[in-house]
């Protein structure tokens, strides 16, 4: 398809038809646009209330990207080697609170050896057979119902207080706090959340699963009986597996470099967009953790069900 400029009016009409029940495939043929464009327009609309992304506010002094953020960038390229730098820039802002210019981002990736040519090569080496096996597993009618009700997914996110303050043009007094969140989500929305100041280690994560998540779950094959985890090191402990087994909970580990198969990933974008729009609530709160926990109510059951469907758990 030849690159062409698509008007905001056409984008809005496409989303209206999608909301009215048209399938992405029907819209694709009616408007001669790609499914990827449809999902991008919807994401932009959910974050900004318009189909056109506003000019990036990520200006100013360049920042050094940590090794953890470089790993996140690598995972994005694994998922989609054609990702554009401005898309990567916004992902780093939303998920890692890193504000960096396009030129600095490109230079940093090159210095780290993350060139597009290399990332395309690595993406080709991703275990597609493992991803296909995982998709076949979650869509097996002998194992799962197709409603998505069995699944609970867990992941971590972080929030830097500076980002909230920057959006409203003022700086907090003293060193800004960084909060880490572990959150579990079912098709009914967020079901367990824990937020701590600083980073979350394996012990804190284990306690979160045992004290907060397991009480919300049931033995397989009941609803909320299958825990979906990624390949983060703190998720792989014999003790955690033993406790889950004792409670009759099935565990599914996502294939490496497969954030598109984890429904909760999309929810973090929506949650952090909400925090950007309402940052003063967190910044001015006497109890920022309580305010952050309350803000997770922006994730609705309808949203969660859509993300599970998009990732293939509902069929």
UniProtKB/TrEMBL annotation:
PANTHER family: TRANSPOSASE. Residues 151-280 form the Tc1-like transposase DDE domain. Gene3D superfamilies: Ribonuclease H-like superfamily/Ribonuclease H. GO terms for molecular function: nucleic acid binding. This is Tc1-mariner class transposase. SUPFAM superfamilies: Homeodomain-like, Ribonuclease H-like. It comes from Mycena venus. It comes from the Eukaryota. InterPro entries: Homeodomain-like_sf, RNaseH-like_sf, RNaseH_sf, Tc1-like_DDE_dom, Transpos_IS630-like.
